Amino acid sequence: MKKLGRTNLRLVAAATALAVAGGVGAVVSASADPPSNAMNMGHGVNEYGMTKAFYDGKALSFTYSKGFFCDTSVASAATSGCEVGAKANKAPAGRIEPLFITVPLGFTVKKSKMDCPDGLVCVDHPGTIDLSRLEPTLKPLYPKLTDAQLTTALQNAATPGHQHFITTRAKGKRIWWDVKVVGVTKKSEYNKITAHRSAAFLKKEIKAGKTTAAIPTNLFLFFSVK
Questions:
Q1: Are 147 and 154 contacting, i.e. CB atoms less than 8 angstroms apart?
Q2: Is 41 part of any domain?
Q3: Does residue 22 carry a pLDDT above 50?
Q4: Is the separation of the CB atoms in 82 and 68 below 8 Å?
Q5: Which domain holds residue 77?
């Protein structure tokens, strides 16, 4: 599937870059031209499909029927028009609920253990995303990259692998969901959150400082919950 603010985070770009076994060239090339999955800037290709998600201790299914929406009034250098680190100024019409996605940072997770694995563009998700708003925080993680190289790598990064958490089933109706990114830097914590399968537990861990804050984006996904 496809897959953050500026507090004490080590963020999603790490998932893109760290998975590529170090080296300046590999990091930059890995994020240079991934597929955007956009029919035009800010609007995803309409596809029909499903992914998994967690709600109230259960694993549920999302059914997608419309491409992503990213508010293009928020600046983004990604080919999709999507970004992490600033909230949307304009949202799509209709009911909107939060969608929390957890991203592993600094460690790997088996593809079979993720709703949307690294290296794949999930149905109706953007394939690229601009992470450059996180550059001041991420810079220490990439001491071998020049400022220009890091900027290039972050501006059009491949959307990292992630899990989905929701706070309501919205009565099974097709609605828009406001994406909020939560970075998790310890595998033990990531496994604990996954085991609980609960947005309530995730928010408890966020409040306790065991993850990053819930970082706003300009990205919305459209699906129903079964």
A1: no
A2: yes
A3: no
A4: yes
A5: 12-225
Residue 113: inside a domain: yes
Q: Is residue 1 part of a domain?
A: no
Residue keyed to tokens 């220490």: 140
* Residues paired with 44 in a beta bridge: 38
Put simply, whether the predicted model's pTM sits higher than 0.90 gets the answer no
C-beta contacts of 28-33 below 8 A and 24+ residues apart = 28/145, 28/149, 28/152, 28/153, 30/153, 30/158, 31/152, 31/153, 31/154, 31/156, 31/157, 31/158, 32/152, 32/153, 32/156, 33/156
User: What is the tens place of the pLDDT at every residue in 51-68?
Assistant: 999 999 999 999 999 999
**Total domain count, the chain:** 1
In a domain, 104, yes or no: yes
